[in-house]
Amino acid sequence: MTRTTIDFGIDLGTTNSAIARLNGVEAEIIKNDLSSDTTPSAVMVDRRGRLIVGQAAKQRGESDPDNTCLEFKSQMGTTGQPKVFAAAGRSMEPEELSAEVLRSLRHDVAKRTGEEITSAVITVPAAFELSACDATRRAAELAGLTHAPLLQEPTAAALAYGFQTDDENAFWLVYDFGGGTFDAAVVNVRDGEFTVVNHRGDNFLGGKLLDWAIVEELLVPAVAREFGLSDLRRGNPAWRGAINKLKLAAEAAKVQVSSAESANLFVELKDDSGQPFDFEYDLMRADVERLMEPFIVRSVNLCRKALEESRLGPGDIQKALLVGGPTLTPYLRERLADPREGLGIPLDHGQDPITAVARGAAIFAGTQRLDTVAAAPAPTAGEYAVALEYRPVGPDIEPFIGGRVTGGDTAGYSVEFVNPESMPPWRSGRIPLSAEGTFTATLWAEKGRANTFQIELTDPTGALKPVTPGTLTYTVGVVETQPPLIHSVGIGLADNEVDWLLKKGTPLPARRQISLRTTVGLSRGQGEGMIRIPVVEGEHHRADRNRQIGRLEVNPEQIRRDVPEGSQVDLTLLIDESRLVVARAYIPLLDEEFEHAINLQTETAPDPGRLARDVAAEKQRLQQARRRASEFADPRAEQVLARIDNERIVPDLDKLVDAAKVDPGAAITAENRLRDLRAATDEVEDELEWPALVQEARELIPAVREVVRDRGKTAHQSLLETGEAAIQEAIAAHDADLLRQRVAELRQLALRVLDESGDLAFLAFDELRTLQPEMRDQREAEQLMATGRRAVETNDVATLRQVNAALGELLPTPPPPPDPFSTVRRSR
């Protein structure tokens, strides 16, 4: 058959992947060679260079971790840490490994259906960075998928659950807890279309973290205790094989305790001397639930944040759609349903959570027309061709289409559409073609099935003429409107600020153009002076709190002549529906535009040593914030600290830093969690700034009152009352910036009163005396000081002001304003 739409959808997962095909209104999973719905995302290369994908590769990971690779999805978009398969001496980047999984899925389709596909929709986590999306595109190309639109996983899940829904106006929450990533998306369904209202997610929160928690907190201590193995830990390269075996055993046992109180693990290991021994362990459901708790807490916090930002509460959400293998866990479902500790939203688990994303991707694929049918096919002799413009899937039961018939003289011709499967058969009636062969028509379709319309072309006598294609298919179903940009995208500036180019929630496709100035000169043909502008993705106002996803670059080799420092560069950034990025740089001085001006492959796995130092420094900053929070007893700061503790960010970081010595994936996860910790500690410090500011304001008011009472005038008293009232209003509004401004205004009033009374000159002189060692000309400074001291003794305010001005000129920087509340008081 000749397909007019893509129809195939792929869930390219962290632990497992799957492919589905749309048939009518149902999406069916294409099973692999083992008749399984899913294929493990695992790759092995043996010593003869043979490449194996799937279950066999995953099983070999127990005994041969040096020649197998799993869970590489978390490294998509990074470079510099390829997997080296030791036996064959072959190295592969994350996108190359993903390409092998995609090839395996294509092979399954060919074997099961006989169809060689070159197009498929591929899902990515909504939280995926733009660099990871670009890596997924490259993986698709390497796998022979020349046309592969990308779809956000929550969107695919919503399609799987709601393709044929009758809901007219409802909000849903997609709770997608996968093997390695988590997405929470608020979806609004209205009039047969749905929109992603808001999203929160974490690319490094998934079921594999629970597997590692079981290994590190239960199994490793039990093995070490029973058999006395020395320094058995994830970060010790000597025990890599043993740790990997325990990890795979933990994953299998974790699944078993979802339906039983305990599961027995049996693993063959070797001791320090290489002697084999058998390790048995009874994994209890209660222990797994305890270890799962911090991951649930983090996922719930992300859901609540997504709802809060959407100005919605649990009562506004009709249902939560469960997606991902961990959502099969009874404990997780109980926690989510709890209105106090969870979400308190009705749960919908009517779809298979493991394959929902693949089936949703296939449904979306059915809405995507293939490029091969976008233009009218060349008709053969005696045949006509029709080029059609329409949506293959839509909410309307009376869809509107347009088209044009080519192939010869069409004067007096008509076109008619027939739906033979409706009862009775529906006909559009003959629609006359225009002089150019064009037409428009309104069809009638039934819900619940794919409607295939026959296309009948008749000449002026009513005789049927052959036309290609002879049919079109339309399905009534829920469709997505424009997808939103999940994270804001900007460029990092020299002062650690961010110039945001496109904000979160911007409908895609999106385009933005900005003008910048070069900070270095470019010399034609030389390797120095490259324009490099960091591109960041996130929401934090500090550039280093966001993830750097690439760089905008113009190389000296690309330019025809020198470009001096300060030259204008006009940058145009385009992001399409798949979140794929194109950047162009135009330099007016050269009157030349440079394509592909963005490098999305710049971030590598962090160095373990640097990572350990950064984590230690951040833990120290957190401790300081804890002490200050305890001093002020600020409830908002305490709430953020409780969240840090409940999500176990610090203990997780400690384990990840150790594991980073042997596992690049752990290093990338650790860096992401470190970024979370930094942002959370920033939040604590921001909250603590408020009580300190309030305390400063409340201490300032009586001091200014004293200055105004002793030295002020009636007008000053009126200004004091106004200033005090303004401070109280700012405190009531909990507005830090406004309070800071009001405090400065009140302090300025005190300085004004002291200046008019003459006291300010004496305070300023006292301040300048302490700064004498910093003055450039010590001889002149001493002469001025002597003059100043005589002016103080004689109460000569005018002379003292002149001395102060001259002393200020001798300082390398302007002197700070004098303290109007110095303990030194002059009696005049």
UniProtKB/TrEMBL annotation:
Gene3D superfamilies: 3.30.420.40, Actin, Chain A, domain 4, Substrate Binding Domain Of DNAk, Chain A, domain 1
Pfam family name, one: HSP70
Name recorded for this polypeptide: Hsp70 family protein
PROSITE patterns cross-referenced by the UniProt entry: HSP70_1
Organism annotation: Actinomadura vinacea
Region (Disordered) location: 807-828
Family in the record: Belongs to the heat shock protein 70 family.
Keyword Membrane: no
